[in-house]
Amino acid sequence: MNELVIAIDGPSGAGKSTVGHAVAERLGLEYLDTGAMYRGVTFAALRRGLDPHDPEIAAVAEHVALEIGNGCICVDGVEATAEIRGREVTAAVSAVAANSGVRAEMVRRQRAWVVEHGGGVVEGRDIGSIVFPDAALKLYITASPRVRAERRVADIGGDIDDVEASIIERDRKDSSRADSPLVEASGAITVDTTGLTIDEVVDQILDLLGRAGAS
Question: 49-57 long-range contacts, Cβ below 8 Å, gap at least 24?
Fold first, then answer.
């Protein structure tokens, strides 16, 4: 693979999407939020009345139409940007993402996206470990659970202690699933965003990219 890929992994609420968008903009690259893809599949499955653990969701993943770009996502022609971030989808997405058939189809789409766009900034939970293990730069973006909870509450509201508990539980599920668990990929560089501004994080990443000789 000759395309320039910056792979960003990390737990929920660490700032991956915000950082990924900013890095892509600074470099003039396209950006792909793979988490939105899994949320889109989850949204489609729930609309069909399926239980998040239903094996049939793999078939949904194969046929669902996902349009992701410009801060919007459409699922089967339905604008669902807000809905995929809602509590119902958030509560179900870990189970859907653990489905091996779903993951296989999403990985196929993610690799095809990079070929189509000639590279890009791709973020998720298994990008550097599974999807693009040969990426030019692999990053693991993280922050303390409390800081991540504060960010989530600022975005969607809620009780901070409850949100923090749900984040910790999401980390446990993502890290312990059998297929493509959340891990720090071999060769990845950890960037802790706790106490840093977005510009400081982006500057740090661009410096790392320059050192890797891939800019």
Answer: 52/92, 52/93, 52/95, 52/96, 53/95, 55/99, 55/101, 57/96, 57/99, 57/101, 57/102
Q: What is the pLDDT of residues 160-175, one digit of tens each?
A: 999 999 899 988 888 8
Q: How far apart are the first and last CA of the chain?
A: 16
* 49 torsion bin: left (phi>0), alpha (psi -120 to 50), beta (else): left
Instruction: Report all structural domains of the chain as residue ranges with CATH numbers, in order of start.
Output: 1-30+119-210 (3.40.50.300), 34-117 (3.40.50.300)
Q: Which among 23, 180, 175 has a CA at the least distance from the CA of 103?
A: 180
Q: What is the pTM of this model?
A: 0.87
Q: How would you classify the pairing of strands 119-124 and 4-9?
A: parallel
Share of the chain above pLDDT 70, in %: 98
Four-CA torsion 57, 40, 123, 167, nearest 10 degrees:
-80
CB 1 within 8 A of CB 132: yes
Q: Which two tokens stand for residue 10?
A: 């990390």
